[in-house]
Specification:
heterodimer; A: alpha/beta; Rossmann fold; 6-stranded parallel sheet; 17 helices; 16 strands; 44% helix; globular; B: alpha/beta; 5 domains; 5-stranded parallel sheet; 4-stranded parallel sheet; 17 strands
C-alpha cells in the first residue's frame, strides 16, 4: 500500500565528496574470493605494498600456503632491463608446477602494473594458450587507482562473464560470492519455491559450468557488482531488481521478486517463506532490542552501506544520520533506497577529514567505519562497528538475520556492560 | 619479478609511517593511491593506537593520472598544513607515486609553508620497511638537529624506537631505569615520543644509546660525526649483553656501572633443577638481525640451548649476523623468502623455534613449539602488561616467554611416568595447549590390535619396532622416528627392527 506521505531516500539529494579516501583497494577482495573458488589462484602483479596489504588486511597467515601471492615488480622490471612478460611467464610456470591443483589462474592488476601499463590481458591470453585446457588464465584489476575494496570482486566476476557458456534455457543465475552455508540455504529456499535451474557466480570450481543467455534471469546478492551487472546485460540476461537479502524483509522482498519472475503462486510463496521469515523476525526482535531508537553513521567502505542502513532503519528501529558509500549504483541499490524514509545524509565518495568532523560532531550511537578509524573514534568516546566484518561474516538471508543484527548490537552491549570506574 | 606469499617487511613508506606515527607535531604527506591507506590499520588495530597516524594520503585515482596529480599533491599538502598545524612535515611517494615522478619534495618546498619541509627519497622497488624508517629518521635529524649546549647532568638520547616496534614501548622504560640507576638522565627519546622541537635539541645529550640499529643507525652515525655524540654498540638484550651495555655506558661517561640487580631472575631460573630439561634443546633462531643475534647469545650462554640455525630477513644486518653464525659453527640463513625459512626449519627439525609470527605459523604446521622474539609484529606482541625485551626485566620476560611453549621439566617427567595412564595418554597432549580432555572411554587393553607396518620411503617399520616406538613418550617420538629412519638409511637397512631402533638410539646418544 503506497503511503503518500512517505518520501524515500531515492529522491534525496546526494552529498558528493572528493578528497582523501580512507578505503581499501580492490585487491582486498582476493581474501574472500580465494576461499570461495577453491581451485583458483590469484596472482597479483604489483609491489611489496600489495603483498603487505593482503597480509595485513587478511590476517590469515594461518593458511599454510594461501591461494594468492604477489609477483613483486623490481627495479629491473621497471627500468626495462628485464622483459616483464618473460618474468611473469617464469613466475607463473614456477607457481603452476608447484601447485598442480590450480585450474583457474587470475592475474590481478595493481596500481604499479597499471601505471607502467603492463598489459595483463595479453599475458592472460598467452598463458591461457600455453596451459589450456588444464588451467584457465584470466585477468582483472584490483588496483587502488581503479577500484575500491569490494569492486575487486566486481572486476573479477566481470572478467568471468565472457567465459560463461551460452545457453538459451530459462534459468536463474545468482551473482555474488557467499559463504557456503549461506549459499546452501539460498539454494534450498529457491528449490522449495520450485525455481530452477539455479547457478551461482562465482562457482566453487572451474569444472562447475555456469551458463548465461537471453532466457537467463539474474539476481544479485551483493550490491557492489555494478560492472558484472552490465556485463550480464550485455550477454542478454535480464536483471531482477530487488532489495538485498538482509534481514527478514530484505530476504522476503528478494525472494518475492524472483518468485514473481518465475510465476510462483502467492500460496506457495507463503508456504515456503512464512516459517523462516517468522523465525528471522523473532530473532531480529530479540537481537535488535538494544538497537531500537539508536542512531547510526556509516563511513563509506564496501558499498553494503545502503542495504545495511535499510535493514537497520526499517527492521531494527535505528535512525540513520549519514550513510556514506564509495559509489552509489542506483540500478542495484535503488530498491533499498526506496524503502528508507528520507532523513539521513546520503554521501558518495569521501573526504575523510571532513567526514570525521561530521561524525565527531553528530556522535551517533553507533559509527560503522573501517579498521583505520575505529580505535581512534572509540578513544574519542564513540561506539564503532568495523565494516570489514560485514563482508567476512555470513549475514545474508533469514537464518543469518539475527547474526547481522548482532554484529551491530554487540559494540553497544559492550559499552553498556563495561564498568571501569572505581566503586563509590 | 619475484613471487612472494608472506613478507617480513612492508614497503619503505610504511617505515616512514612508523617514524611519523611514533612522533608528535610531525605530519607526513604521502603521495599515494587510496588503497595505501590500509597502513593506518597497522597502527590503530595491531598497536591499538587511539589516534590516526599523522599521515595524509593524496589518494589519486586513474582519472587524475597525467592531468593534475601534482596539483592534488599540493592541495593535500596545504590542507594538511592548515588542519594539523605541524612543527615540521615530511613528504614523499609510495611505490605507485614513485612511478609518476611528481617530485613531492620539490613541490612542497616551493609552497612557501613556514615549517621545515623534509623530502624523503625511499626507493620502493629496491628497499623495505626498516630502511624506510632508518632513512626517514636520519633525514629528520639531519634537517632539524643542530649543535647545542650540553645538559649539566650527564644525559643521553635513546635512539631507534618507533611506532609498531617489537616491545619498544617497554624497552624505553627499562633502559631509562637502568640509566637512571647509573646517574644518567634521558635528554630525548626519538623518534618515538619526540617532536620536531625535541629533535632540535638532540645535541644537548652527552651520548646516544642506539637501541635498534635497524631503525636508528644512520641517524646515530650522523650525530656521532656532526654533533660529536658517541653511541653505544651493545644491544642490551639478555643478561650478558645488558652488562656489556652498562660497561660501555660506564666507559663513555666515567660513571660506575652499578645498578640494582635484585629483580634479575634469569640466571637462577636457568640454573635451577627444573631447567635441566632445557639443556641442549635444539633451537632455530630467525628474526630481524638485532633480535636474532641477541637471542643466539641468550640461547647458548644463558639458557643452555643448542643453536642449530640462525638467520635474519633484513639484508642490512647480514654481515654481523654471518659473523656471529660462524662463531657458532653455523652458516647463516639470510633470506626474506618465507618458504625458504620453512624448508630450512623442516630439514633441521629443531625442538624449538625462536622466530617471528611467521615462524610461529611454521611451527604450528610442523608441530614445533615457537616463541616470538622479533618483528614483524602481531596484536599479541603488544601485551597489556609491562613486557620489555631489554635490560634485566627483559631477561626475565625472555626466560618466561621461551619456556612457556615447552612442556615444563617436572611436567615432562610426570608425563613420562604416567604415559600409560588414561588421563595422560598420547592423544591428550600438553595440558597448557588446550584440547587435553581425557578420552571418554578408557582404552580397552584386552584387545590387542595388530598395528600395520608403516612404510616410509624405502624403509619399513616391523611390527615389533613400531610397537616399541609407541612406548616412547610422544614428545620425543618424532625425533626417535626420524633418527632411526636416518640411521637405517645410512646403514642401508630396509627394515627397522627393535634392534635398529636401539642401535640408532645408541648412535645418537649424547
Amino acid at each position: 500500500m503506497p503511503d503518500v506521505s512517505f518520501t524515500s531516500c531515492a529522491q534525496a539529494p546526494v552529498l558528493k565528496e572528493r578528497g582523501q579516501r580512507e578505503v581499501f583497494c580492490g585487491l582486498t577482495s582476493i581474501i574472500w574470493l580465494h576461499r570461495k573458488m577453491q581451485d583458483a589462484f590469484f596472482l597479483v602483479v604489483g609491489s611489496r605494498t600489495c603483498a603487505h596489504l593482503l597480509q595485513s588486511a587478511a590476517g590469515v597467515m594461518i593458511f599454510a600456503e594461501p591461494r594468492f601471492g604477489t609477483a613483486i615488480l623490481e627495479e629491473t622490471d621497471l627500468a626495462g632491463l628485464a622483459d616483464a612478460h618473460q618474468e611473469l611467464d617464469r613466475e607463473v610456470d614456477r607457481l603452476l608446477s608447484r601447485r598442480p591443483d590450480i585450474r583457474q589462474l587470475f592475474l590481478v592488476g595493481s596500481c604499479p602494473s597499471e601505471v607502467i601499463k603492463l598489459d595483463l590481458s595479453k599475458a592472460a591470453e598467452r598463458l591461457s594458450q600455453k596451459y589450456a585446457p588444464s588451467v584457465r588464465v584470466l585477468n582483472f584489476t584490483g588496483s587502488g587507482i581503479e577500484t575500491t575494496f569490494t569492486q575487486g570482486e566486481d572486476e573479477c566476476l566481470t572478467a568471468m562473464v565472457p567465459m560463461l557458456n551460452e545457453s538459451s534455457d530459462r534459468q536463474l543465475l545468482v551473482v555474488g560470492a557467499l559463504p557456503d552455508v549461506v549459499e546452501d540455504q539460498m539454494r534450498s529456499l529457491l528449490d522449495a519455491l520450485g525455481i530452477g535451474p539455479v547457478s551461482v557466480l562465482p562457482a566453487s570450481s572451474a569444472g562447475n559450468t555456469v551458463s548465461v543467455g537471453p532466457n537467463t534471469y539474474f539476481a544479485m546478492t551483493q550490491p557492489f557488482l555494478g560492472e558484472t551487472h552490465s556485463a550480464l546485460l550485455r550477454r542478454g540476461a535480464e536483471h531482477i531488481p530487488a532489495p538485498f537479502p538482509f534481514g527478514a524483509e530484505g530476504t522476503t522482498a528478494w525472494l518475492r521478486a524472483i518468485a514473481d519472475k518465475f510465476g510462483v503462486s502467492d500460496d506457495k510463496f507463503e508456504g515456503v517463506v512464512s516459517a523462516p521469515r517468522a523465525r528471522a523476525q523473532k530473532a531480529i526482535a530479540q537481537a535488535s532490542e538494544v538497537l531500537k531508537n539508536k542512531s547510526v553513521f556509516f563511513f563509506p567502505d564496501s558499498q553494503l552501506e545502503i542495504p545495511l542502513a535499510r535493514f537497520l532503519t526499517v527492521e531494527c528501529g535505528m535512525t540513520a544520520l549519514e550513510v556514506g558509500t564509495p559509489f552509489l549504483h542506483r540500478p542495484l541499490v535503488g530498491p533499498d533506497l526506496e524503502l528508507m524514509s528520507q532523513g539521513p545524509v546520503i554521501s558518495e565518495g569521501q573526504d575523510v577529514d571532513l567526514q570525521l568532523d561530521r561524525a565527531l560532531q553528530q556522535r551517533a550511537d553507533l559509527t560503522v567505519c573501517g579498521l583505520g578509524l575505529a580505535n581512534p573514534l572509540e578513544a574519542a568516546g564513540l561506539t564503532t562497528k568495523w565494516a570489514i566484518e560485514l563482508v567476512f561474516t555470513p549475514v545474508h538471508f533469514y537464518e543469518q538475520a539475527s547474526d547481522l543484527a548482532g554484529l551491530f548490537s554487540r559494540p553497544l552491549r559492550r559499552r553498556a556492560i563495561l564498568r571501569q570506574e572505581a566503586a563509590e | 619479478m619475484k613471487l612472494t606469499v608472506w613478507t617480513y617487511e612492508g614497503p619503505p613508506h610504511v617505515g616512514a609511517m612508523r617514524v611519523a606515527t611514533g612522533m608528535t607535531g610531525l605530519h607526513y604527506v604521502l603521495h599515494a593511491p587510496q588503497g595505501d591507506t590500509y597502513a593506518d590499520l597497522l597502527f590503530t588495530m595491531i598497536e591499538r593506537r587511539d589516534h590516526r597516524p599523522p599521515v595524509t594520503f593524496t589518494t589519486f585515482q586513474a582519472r587524475d593520472l597525467g592531468s593534475d596529480t601534482a596539483n592534488l599533491f599540493k592541495t593535500s599538502c596545504k590542507e594538511a598544513y592548515e588542519r594539523f598545524k605541524p612543527q615540521a612535515m615530511i613528504v614523499g611517494s609510495s611505490c605507485t607515486a614513485e612511478l609518476i615522478q611528481d617530485d613531492p619534495g620539490g613541490l612542497a618546498e616551493n609552497m612557501g609553508l613556514d615549517v621545515p619541509i623534509i623530502p624523503l627519497e625511499l626507493p620502493s622497488y629496491q628497499r623495505k620497511e626498516n630502511f624506510g624508517a632508518d632513512e626517514t629518521f636520519f633525514q629528520i635529524v639531519r634537517h632539524l638537529a643542530k649543535p647545542c649546549e650540553k645538559t649539566k647532568q650527564i644525559s643521553c638520547n635513546l635512539i631507534g624506537p618507533t611506532a609498531l616496534g617489537f616491545r619498544h614501548r617497554d624497552d624505553i622504560e627499562e633502559i631509562s631505569g637502568l640509566l637512571s640507576d647509573m646517574g644518567v638522565s634521558i635528554n630525548v627519546v626519538a623518534p618515538m615520543g619526540s617532536s620536531p622541537e625535541d629533535i632540535q635539541k638532540l645535541g644537548s645529550a652527552h651520548f646516544n644509546v642506539l637501541m635498534y640499529p635497524e631503525t636508528g643507525e644512520s641517524a646515530a652515525r650522523w650525530m656521532e660525526r656532526e654533533l660529536g655524540l658517541p653511541f653505544t654498540k651493545s644491544i642490551p638484550i639478555g643478561v650478558g649483553a645488558t652488562r656489556d651495555f652498562l660497561n660501555e655506558v660506564s666507559q663513555i661517561t666515567g660513571l660506575d656501572a652499578v645498578v640494582d640487580e635484585s629483580r634479575l631472575r634469569l640466571p637462577w631460573y636457568s640454573a635451577s633443577v627444573d631447567s635441566t630439561y632445557l639443556t641442549g634443546k635444539r633451537v632455530f633462531i630467525f628474526g630481524d638481525g638485532t633480535h636474532a643475534m641477541a637471542a643466539a647469545r641468550i640461547a647458548r650462554d644463558e639458557m643452555g640451548f643448542e643453536v642449530v640455525g640462525l638467520g635474519c630477513y633484513n639484508r642490512e644486518m647480514a654481515r654481523p649476523l654471518r659473523g656471529l653464525a660462524k662463531s657458532f659453527g653455523l652458516t647463516a640463513l639470510i633470506t626474506d623468502d618465507y618458504l625458504e625459512v620453512e624448508k630450512h626449519i623442516a630439514e633441521l627439525a629443531p625442538e624449538m623455534i625462536l622466530g617471528t609470527q611467521m615462524e610461529r605459523h611454521i611451527g604450528k604446521r610442523l608441530g614445533i613449539p615457537c616463541a616470538v622474539i622479533s618483528a614483524p609484529v602481531h596484536v599479541q606482541d603488544f601485551p597489556a602488561r609491562y613486557s620489555p625485551q631489554m635490560g634485566f626485566e627483559g631477561a626475565n620476560v625472555i626466560f618466561d616467554t621461551w619456556v612457556h611453549p615447552l612442556v615444563m621439566g617436572l611436567e615432562e617427567h610426570l608425563l613420562h611416568m604416567f604415559r600409560d595412564d588414561f588421563e595422560f595418554n598420547d592423544a591428550a597432549g600438553p595440558s597448557h595447549h588446550g584440547g587435553h580432555a581425557p578420552s571418554q572411554s578408557r582404552p580397552d587393553n584386552s584387545i590387542e590390535k595388530e598395528p600395520t607396518p608403516i612404510k616410509n620411503g624405502d624403509v619399513i617399520w616391523l611390527l615389533d619396532a613400531e610397537k616399541e616406538l609407541k612406548k616412547i613418550p610422544f614428545f620425543v617420538r618424532g625425533k626417535a622416528r626420524r633418527n632411526t629412519e636416518t640411521y637405517a638409511a645410512q646403514k642401508g637397512v630396509s627394515q627397522i627392527s627393535i634392534e635398529t631402533l636401539y642401535e640408532a638410539k645408541a648412535h645418537y646418544a649424547q
